[in-house]
Amino acid sequence: DLRDYGAEFWAETIRYIKKKNPGITLETLIPDFLGKAELIHKVIDAGPEIISHNMETVRRLTPLVRSRAKYDISLKTIETVAKSNKSKPKSGMMVGLGETPEEVVQTMDDLRAVGCRVLTIGQYLQPTRKHLPVSEFVSPDQFREYKRIGLEKGFEFVESGPLVRSSYRAERHV
Question: pLDDT (tens digit, 9 = 90+) per residue, 65-116?
Fold first, then answer.
């Protein structure tokens, strides 16, 4: 309901934290701001070391999983962060929603193509009965394979496992 979709609140919060805690390292998880570069740059210019925007899922499942966000706008958001060369771009996704391994790999390719450098992959867990059910509990071996593939594709860091969430081991990604 805000004109800038809250971008100034993100920026103001980052600036305040950095002022109160000089030398602190920050990672912020942002919405897509509808892909509007000027709003994304408000956050970038505040100086967080890492800016994350989660893809959440593969292209085919995005309309089912995400109520408003669009796959290509999320990619554009990450690309804007990457092109700034000021903050490290990061994204995360959940598996176990019915995606195929090939779709996960395609999402990795899409993220690398826009400059994403850090990726987290975790198991989807149904938060309430009103949410989508878990389609599959992905095996630890498959999570290890996703990590191997992601690193091979050029991600600097890939955190991949059933309990991984978007800020999992975030201190390592700086």
Answer: 998 899 999 999 999 999 999 999 999 999 999 999 999 999 999 999 999 9
Give CA–CA dist 156/101, Å, rounded: 21
- Domain interval for residue 166: 7-172
What is the C-alpha to C-alpha distance for residues 146 and 101, in angstroms, rounded to an integer?
A: 8
For residue 2, being part of any structural domain is answered with no
Q: Which residues pair with 91 in a beta bridge?
A: 119
Residue 65 sits in a domain whose CATH number is: 3.20.20.70
Q: Which of 67, 59, 154 is nearest to 104 (CA)?
A: 59
| Whether the Cβ atoms of residue 89 and residue 127 lie closer than 8 Å to each other | no
Q: Which residue's structure tokens are 């991949």?
A: 160
Token pair listed for 166 = 């978007």
Specify if 1 maps to a domain.
no
Question: What are the CB-based long-range contacts (under 8 Å, 24+) for 5-8?
Answer: 5/31, 5/33, 5/34, 5/36, 5/39, 6/31, 7/33, 7/39, 7/40, 7/42, 7/43, 8/42
Instruction: State pLDDT tens for residues 132-150.
Output: 999 999 999 999 999 999 9
pTM: 0.94
Q: Count up the domains in the chain and report the number.
A: 1
